[in-house]
Amino acid sequence: MSGSLVIDWIVFIFAGFGIFFSLLRFLKGPSSFERLAAVDMMNVMFTGIIVLLAFVSKNNMYMDIAILYGLLAFIETVVFARYLEGRAKTIEKKHMQNTEMKSGEAK
After folding, report:
1. What stretches of 1-107 adopt beta strand conformation (E)?
2. Are 35 and 26 in contact (CB under 8 A)?
3. Which of 11, 34, 43, 104 would bridge with 73, disulfide CB 3.0–4.6 Å?
4. For residue 29, what is the DSSP state?
5. How far is the CA of 26 from the CAs of 1, 11, 61, in angstroms?
6. With 80 as the cut, is the pLDDT of residue 57 above it?
7. pLDDT recorded at residue 105
């Protein structure tokens, strides 16, 4: 086994650990924003694995796939973040209305 191949396997293993721990954060994350960050981290790790596959197999097609996957992962993160931001604003607005109604009843 050559030194380069050993290093490649080590990188694959560490990327696998990164995906595993990101999956744990996704499953146990107390808030939606932490789950979104975990999904984004998994997407970065998957993109890195695809790039490493392109390097190991010396096939440029994997690089094209990695670029497309990275672009779609970025769009996914932005869309979900905007959705969560809107949902948080709606919840805050309802909370403010309930607080105003309760303070109006107390007067």
Report:
1. none
2. yes
3. 43
4. -
5. 36, 22, 30
6. yes
7. 64
Lookup: tokens for 57: 């197999």
Q: Which residue has the tokens 């973040």?
A: 81
pTM: 0.76
Number of domains in the chain: 1
Question: Domain range holding 72?
Answer: 3-76
Q: Is residue 82 part of a domain?
A: no
Tokens of 51: 């790039």
* Amino acid found at 35: R
Q: Is residue 102 part of a domain?
A: no
Q: Which residue carries 């996914």 as its tokens?
A: 76
**105 in a structural domain:** no
Closest CA to 38 of 47, 29, 49: 29
| Tokens (6 digits) for 1 | 């086994």
